[in-house]
Amino acid sequence: MYKIAIIAGDGTGPEVVAEAVKVMQAAAAKFDFKYEGVKFDFGGERYMRTGETLPDSAIEELRGFDSILLGAIGHPGVAPGILEKGILLKLRFALDQYINLRPVRLFPGVETPLKHKGPAEIDYVVIRENTGDLYTGVGGVTMKGTPNEVAMQVAVYTRHQVDRCLRYAFEYARKNGRKARGKGEHNTLALVGKTNVLTFVYDLWERAFHEMGQKDFPDVRRDYYHVDACCMWMVKSPEWFDVLVTGNMFGDIITDLGAITQGGMGLAAGGNINPEGVSMFEPIGGSAPKYTGKGVINPLAAICAGGMMLESLGQTDASAAIDRAVRFVTANKLPSMAAGKMGHSTSEVGDMVAQYVAQNG
Ligand code: IPM
Ligand code: MN
Fold first, then answer.
1. Sorting pLDDT into bands at 50, 70 and 90, what band is 331?
2. Which protein residue has the closest C-alpha to ligand 1 atom 8?
3. What is the mean pLDDT of the chain?
4. CA-CA 20 to 30 A from 122: which of 13, 62, 101, 181?
5. pLDDT at 287
6. 117, pLDDT greater than 90
7. How far apart are CA 361 and CA 220, in angstroms?
8. What is the mean predicted confidence (pLDDT) over 281-286?
9. Which of 252, 265, 272 should be mutated for ligand 1, with most atoms under 8 A from CB?
10. Which residues lie at CB < 5 A from ion ligand 2?
């Protein structure tokens, strides 16, 4: 019996999470496992009501769960940064979810803005370090509001943070790279950095990358891209990529670019992973306030996040079945992935995926 915390959150979060839960239920019945979902109401509404984002007691409670499913955080009635820092980032940091795993996969039948590219070319994974970098909040401001105002925000990395992220990435590449999946001759891990300018932080990453690769993962091919060039190749030649690893800030940016190449936010799922602790899975799009309550938002990213969660819990067959079901639906049932243009409501899309899982496994 798995204990799953469900934080549906703001905007369209509850609508898409409901579909993810529906599909997980179908998978649980088909693959014979049980879980208990416990709902938490953290988000903008609660903040506006109580002034509370995420109390420390909630963190302690969440440590007792096997996993967390998150919908979306962000509310038009709350100033930017409060909920993001107070809930999403607080969860990532407090639970030390040091990996942000973001697959960039184009599903069949999904339109990509990349000309002449299809599911065979857009099929890689970004491993974003999730606890350090510009996200640590190190910095400050002085003489605010004067012409001499000084603002600083510092990219922070420790060797320990870099090493544990790289180890996860090398292991991931060895287990899930192109060769491991029968799709190429090598498993390749590419570091994405900016060694020509960020000569402290990315020098640390680069040394750690080659040291670890040479010593412990000689079978994994190593590659390197500057982040700016990486963006260019993500558009021009995404088929070059297998597994990418990068710091928190670059990872944030390049995964939005990746998401649009895989058909948009309606399809992009990610996992905030603590391999030794409690992980949290989420559709990486926002709360989409303008679509809230209309039943038009695409739930597939949330459904895929649920699939990633099941994989992390060891339910690999159930996870693979959800993946197949989503591919079936994108290939055969949806004329478009965009909100309001799917030809079906949010819950009908969830029904179709759940039904496919129930019937085909
Ligand atoms: C993401 C989001 C968050 C981030 C924001 C909402 C704090 O953009 O998950 O990519 O920057 O990590
Ligand atoms: Mn982002």
1. very high
2. 252
3. 97
4. 13
5. 94
6. yes
7. 33
8. 94
9. 252
10. 252
pLDDT of residue 285: 87
Which one, of 223, 226, 277, lies nearest residue 247 by Cα? 226
Confidence of residue 68 (pLDDT cuts 50, 70, 90): very high
Mean pLDDT of 112-121: 97
User: Which strands form 279-283's sheet, in the order they lie side by side?
Assistant: 35-40, 2-9, 67-72, 279-283, 269-273, 99-105, 123-129, 243-246, 188-193, 221-226
The residue nearest atom 4 of ligand 1, judged by CA position, is 252
Give residue 223's pLDDT: 98
List residues near ligand 1 (CB under 6 A).
Answer: 84, 88-89, 252, 284
Q: What is the pLDDT of residue 87?
A: 97
